[in-house]
Each structure stands twice: as structure tokens, then as C-alpha cells.
């Protein structure tokens, strides 16, 4: 009987060790994986998707982008949205959040200047090479991003006003929620023409004519780290990556004007 009790004792010990080991593994598995949440203006969709993939490769940390209108994203951040980084299409919105003490001020960086242009479908029967061409009666709908909260929409409005044709085309205007939404109006044929970001232009998808940058205020695009982030180090690394030797050429390839030096 003694050997039986001995074996039973050993079996109990082994079972307890297995349970303890299993609990330890569960604790390791339950450790949250690092992730970076980036709120970014819609004009950055193509460029940031490419840069983000390279950042993930280098750091092993996945990035989740939320692309949208800069003004609406700023509102979400003010209302507590859990973003780590905010990349705006206009520096004014970064300044607004800085004044509200929602950013790390030293992380604010001008990372690019954007450009706008007139876009039409390649098979369009109406040629649009200048803003004045938008007065053509065959163009019944012109898409721009909502100027109330989208910097690229505001730039489009300023350009139309400076060109002296805002009042003449205002009734033709349809407003996208953001600049990507504006492009969709053109691609789906719901607008004969539109004013979009150069950074979203893809050859063969639409025809595109640049608008003189002097017709609107500069689209100075700024980025910063949200100060309630739990991933401050990674967020700072992402900004350095965007403005560094890997990110800069990619941004330039999408038509952004990249500052020679960032603050």
C-alpha cells in the first residue's frame, strides 16, 4: 500500500505543477500586444498606408489608421478618442489641440505641404484644364470636400473665390465628407469634376490638372503625439519615421512638398 500512496503523492505534485505552469502561460498570452493608433487626414491614405507597412516591418508593431476629415478627427480627439498620433492636413487643428493641452507640444512637426488640382474621369467628353473650365454648362456637379471641416475643401473654396468663380459654381457644388469621399464622387460619375488632393491622384484613374498654389492658403500639414497615449515612445518613433530617410521619399512620391528640415 505504501508504494501506491507514494505514486499518488507524486501524481498529485505533477498535476499541481502542470496547473501552475498552465496558469503562467495564460498570463503570458494575456499580455496585450502593442499597437499604434493613428488618426490621419484622408489625403494621406495612400502615402501613410505605404509608410505604415514599412514601419510595421521595422518595429514589429501593427498600425491602425483612421483616415477622415481633419476637423472631424480633431473633434473625436477632443471627445476622448484613443488615438496615439494625429496627422492633420492643416496646422491650425494641431494648434487647436495644443491649446487644449491634448498634445505633447515638442512633438508637433510640419511634415508636408499639400497640393490640390481639378480631376475628371479619363473618358470625360468635357475637358477641364483650368478652373474657368468648370463654368462649362456640361459640368453639372463639382465635388469638393466640405470646407467647414476639411482643409482640402477649404483650399478648394479659396481657389474658386480667388479665381472669381465661386458665386457662379456654388450651385453646382456637392460636398464630400473628406477628400477621399470627394474623389469617390468623381470615380462613380456622381460629379463631372472635382477638386482633390494631388496625393490621391493615380494615373489612369482620373485626369488631373494642378491648381496654382498661389490661389489658396498653403496646406501646411502638421503631426503630433496625443498626450494621453500609452505608447508615447512608439508614437514619437512613427513621427521620426515619417520625416526621416524612409518616409520622406515616399511622401514626395505622392506629390507632397516635404520641408528640408523639420522642427
Walk me through the structure.
GO terms for molecular function: metal ion binding; molybdate ion binding; tungstate binding. By secondary structure, the protein is of the alpha/beta class. It folds into 2 domains: 36-113 and 219-253, 3-Layer(aba) Sandwich (D-Maltodextrin-Binding Protein, domain 2); 115-215, D-Maltodextrin-Binding Protein, domain 2 (3-Layer(aba) Sandwich), CATH 3.40.190. The protein has 9 helices and 10 strands. It has helices spanning 2-29, 45-59, 70-78, 91-99, 151-162, 166-169, 179-187, 232-242, 247-253; strands spanning 36-41, 63-68, 85-87, 109-114, 116-120, 142-145, 173-176, 193-197, 207-210, 219-225. Strand 1, helix 2 and strand 2 form a beta-alpha-beta unit. The chain is elongated. 40% of the residues are buried. The mean pLDDT is 90.
Second CATH tier, the architecture of the largest domain: 3-Layer(aba) Sandwich
- Write out the CATH superfamily name of the largest domain: Periplasmic binding protein-like II
Query: Which CATH top level class of the largest domain fits?
Result: Alpha Beta
The end-to-end distance, rounded to whole angstroms, is: 81 Å
- What do the pLDDT scores average to? 90
Poorly predicted regions are none
Q: Give the overall shape.
A: elongated
Secondary-structure-based class equals alpha/beta
Please name the CATH topology of the largest domain.
Answer: D-Maltodextrin-Binding Protein, domain 2
Taking Cα atoms only, what radius of gyration do you get, to the nearest Å? Answer: 26 Å
Multimer state: single chain
Portion of residues within helices? 25-40%
Number of domains: 2
> What is the helix tally?
9
Give, in spatial order, the strands making up the sheet with the most strands.
2-1-3-10-4
By DSSP, the count of extended strands is 10
> How much strand?
15-25%
Order of helices and strands: HEHEHEHEEEHHEHEEEHH
**Largest sheet data:** 5 strands, mixed
Amino acid at each position: 500500500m505504501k508504494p501506491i500512496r507514494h505514486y499518488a503523492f507524486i501524481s498529485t505534485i505533477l498535476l499541481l505543477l502542470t496547473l501552475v505552469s498552465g496558469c503562467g502561460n495564460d498570463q503570458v498570452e494575456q499580455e496585450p500586444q502593442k499597437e499604434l493608433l493613428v488618426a490621419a487626414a484622408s489625403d494621406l491614405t495612400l502615402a501613410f498606408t505605404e509608410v505604415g507597412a514599412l514601419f510595421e516591418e521595422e518595429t514589429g508593431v501593427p498600425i491602425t489608421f483612421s483616415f477622415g476629415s481633419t476637423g472631424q478627427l480633431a473633434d473625436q480627439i477632443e471627445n476622448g478618442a484613443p488615438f496615439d498620433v494625429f496627422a492633420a492636413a492643416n496646422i491650425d487643428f494641431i494648434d487647436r489641440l495644443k491649446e487644449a493641452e491634448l498634445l505633447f507640444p515638442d512633438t508637433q512637426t510640419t511634415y508636408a505641404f499639400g497640393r490640390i488640382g481639378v480631376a475628371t474621369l479619363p473618358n470625360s467628353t468635357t475637358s477641364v484644364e483650368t478652373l474657368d473650365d468648370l463654368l462649362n454648362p456640361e459640368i453639372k456637379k463639382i465635388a469638393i470636400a466640405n470646407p467647414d471641416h476639411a482643409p482640402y475643401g477649404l483650399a478648394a473654396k479659396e481657389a474658386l473665390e480667388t479665381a472669381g468663380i465661386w458665386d457662379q459654381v456654388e450651385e453646382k457644388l456637392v460636398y464630400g465628407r473628406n477628400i477621399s469621399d470627394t474623389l469617390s464622387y468623381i470615380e462613380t460619375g456622381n460629379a463631372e469634376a472635382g477638386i482633390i488632393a494631388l496625393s490621391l491622384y493615380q494615373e489612369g484613374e482620373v485626369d488631373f490638372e494642378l491648381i496654382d498654389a498661389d490661389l489658396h492658403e498653403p496646406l501646411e500639414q502638421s503631426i503630433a503625439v496625443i498626450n494621453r497615449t500609452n505608447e508615447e515612445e512608439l508614437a514619437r518613433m512613427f513621427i521620426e519615421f515619417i520625416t526621416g530617410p524612409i518616409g520622406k521619399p515616399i511622401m514626395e512620391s505622392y506629390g507632397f512638398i516635404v520641408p528640408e528640415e523639420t522642427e
